[in-house]
Amino acid sequence: xxxxxxxxxxxxxxxxxxxxxxxxxxxxxxxxxxxxxxxxxxxxxxxxxxxxxxxxxxxxxxxxxxxxxxxxxxxxxxxxxxxxx
Length: 85
Fold this sequence. Notes:
With 85 residues, the chain is an alpha+beta fold. 46% of the residues lie in helices and 14% in strands. 2% of the residues are buried.
């Protein structure tokens, strides 16, 4: 699993070996949801690099999904077991 450092809003390494980018935990005000995000500095107006940016985004989105899939499934199962059984 992973934990959130509420002082820095950083997520401790989940399976950083799988993802290898720092993740940030954002609580959404007035909502019960949160956002986990990462970013990469990019010169978005440089059309010559759009293909490169798209490739980077695709690669890292797939890595993020793989890194979070199992821990999130475990969290869902744990909550189901705790609240519905």
